Amino acid sequence: MIRSATESDVDRIATLLREKAELFKNRGSRQWSAYLETDIETLVMRDLAAGRLFVYEQGPEVFGSIALLPSLEWDQTLWSDNEGLYIHRIVVSETAKGQGIGTRLLHHVIAVAQAEQETLRLDCLASNDFLNGYYASFGFVSKGVRDGFSTYEYAGLPVPK
Question: How confident is the model at residue 159 (pLDDT cuts 50, 70, 90)?
Fold first, then answer.
């Protein structure tokens, strides 16, 4: 089930982000390396305060999260305007990979943006072939590459039920 995150979810979300950053590091990637050098709990609290943060849970366990935020300083380095909503920090527990949780989280925030008639954007490392293909498969259209990051905007396709 997807629900809005609360303060009681902050530690679990931070743990998911830290674990994923460690996994990337162990695989030789610098993706999310900044999360290993910062107070992730404070970052997650800022996400909770700045926009909407959603979690995917099964029973009492949180297995994933996604942030849907207004334009942040980071986004302003990649986009020429600050329109719409931005997807950040989508993460799924390694123990739950392959269960479609990431897909459900993305469909959820797409539906929220559509209901609010907002432009929806995201970015990922240009060198991450998997993510570039993954986001395109959801109807995100490439808007180019800037500073090593692919930028995407949702094309407005209907969200599957």
Answer: low
Q: How far is CA 109 from CA 42, 72, 102, 138, 154, in A?
A: 22, 17, 11, 12, 11
pLDDT of residue 157: 59
- Residue 63: name the closest of 23, 21, 19 by CA: 19
CB 21, CB 36: distance < 8 Å: yes
**Helix and strand numbers, DSSP H then E, in the chain:** 5, 7
Per-residue model confidence (pLDDT) at position 50? 87
| pLDDT of 137 strictly over 70 | yes
With residues binned 3-state (H G I as helix, E B as strand, rest as coil), the percentages for the chain, rounded to 5, are: 40, 30, 30
**What is the pLDDT of the chain when averaged over all its residues?**
92
Tokens in use for 114? Answer: 């559509």
Distance CA 86, CA 70 (A): 6
CA distance 142 to 153: 7
Pairing type for strands 85-92 and 120-125 reads: parallel
Distance, CA of 52 to CA of 32 (rounded, Å): 20
